[in-house]
Specification:
Blueprint: E1 4-5, H1 8-28, E2 34-40, H2 44-59, E3 63-69, H3 75-86, E4 93-96, H4 106-112, H5 124-131, H6 140-151, E5 160-164, H7 171-179, E6 188-192, H8 199-203, E7 208-211, E8 229-232, E9 236-239, E10 246-249, H9 254-257, E11 263-264, H10 271-289
Helix pairs in contact: 1-10, 6-7, 6-10
């Protein structure tokens, strides 16, 4: 099958182009959209993500600061930092990079971020608004998935979507977004997870599969029906004999999926770039709401 590759790089470029005039309008009013990032510990993947985010803000001439805290930082200290940032008008958005060290309660931290500055969309107020069908800040990765589908004119209305994964970061919010009575959505949605018996009986029925499992090359071509759309959120390192010593793969096995899928997001270069683009967009939206 001639599979359409859904490029997050292409869509994110269009997003940045569309934000230019909005950013310029804010700057004429004396506002430069600002993001505060809190990074606790030395997790290598988190360091890469934070560097990518701050680099993009710099490229767009936006304001961002990263507060790097030692791994032994206490929960109370982190909460104190967030309280300060909540009242700091230089920052329209606050992002706490996950995962946090095990001694810190992530839910308690996310609850501390002001809903008006919660550009990751993880505060219960914003998650509740999303569930009610009146989203304010939508979590960046699910929002990016919907933007990819919209860009490539993939309408899910009346379709069966199977989401593999139920995290509050991706699985649960994308299941809500795809089922909302809104343009490009309005799908019938099934959520599969570690407790699901025979996940593949569901993926074989799906018109679209959204993979957010964190298990390399879990889904293969014979696990989907002919012509299904596959959105692969996973990014995993597999050791190989290349100069790098590893390759990046998704939660789907790309080669076999291309034989049956009508459309597919690549890894890397698919959903990943959209997560950062939506973080920028949410920060710009937060700045606009502050006027």
């Amino acid at each position: 099958m001639d599979t359409q590759i859904l490029s997050g790089k292409t869509v994110s470029s269009a997003v940045y182009d569309g934000l230019t005039s909005r950013i310029n309008t804010l700057k004429t009013k004396g506002i430069t959209p600002g993001l505060a990032v809190l990074l606790v510990g030395e997790d290598p993947a988190s360091q890469v993500y934070v560097n990518s985010k701050t680099k993009k803000f710099s490229e767009l001439d936006l304001f961002s600061e990263t507060l790097r805290l030692p791994v032994e930082t206490s929960e109370d200290d982190l909460i104190s930092h967030i309280h300060i940032l909540n009242s700091d008008k230089r920052f329209n958005g606050i992002l706490v990079q996950l995962p946090l060290p095990k001694h810190i309660d992530s839910d308690k931290i996310l609850n501390t971020i002001s809903p008006e500055k919660d550009v990751d969309g993880f505060n219960p107020v914003n998650l509740g608004n999303l569930t009610a069908g009146k989203p304010t800040f939508i979590p960046c990765t699910p929002k990016g998935i919907m933007r990819i589908l919209s860009h490539y004119d993939i309408d899910l209305s009346g379709k069966h979507v199977v989401v593999v994964g139920r995290s509050n970061i991706v699985g649960r919010p994308i299941s809500i977004l795809t089922s909302l009575k809104s343009p490009m959505a309005n799908a019938t949605v099934t959520i599969c997870h570690s407790g699901t018996k025979d996940i593949f009986q569901f993926t074989r029925q799906a018109d679209a599969v959204i993979l957010a499992l964190g298990y390399p090359e879990f889904l293969k071509g014979d696990h989907i029906k002919e012509g299904a759309v596959v959105i692969d959120v996973g990014i995993n390192r597999l050791e190989d004999n290349s100069d790098k010593g590893y390759k990046l793969v998704g939660d789907g096995e790309e080669t076999s999926l291309k034989e049956k899928a009508s459309a597919l997001t690549p890894v890397p270069g698919g959903v990943g770039p959209m997560t950062i683009a939506m973080l920028v967009e949410n920060t710009v939206e937060a700045a606009e709401r502050s006027l």
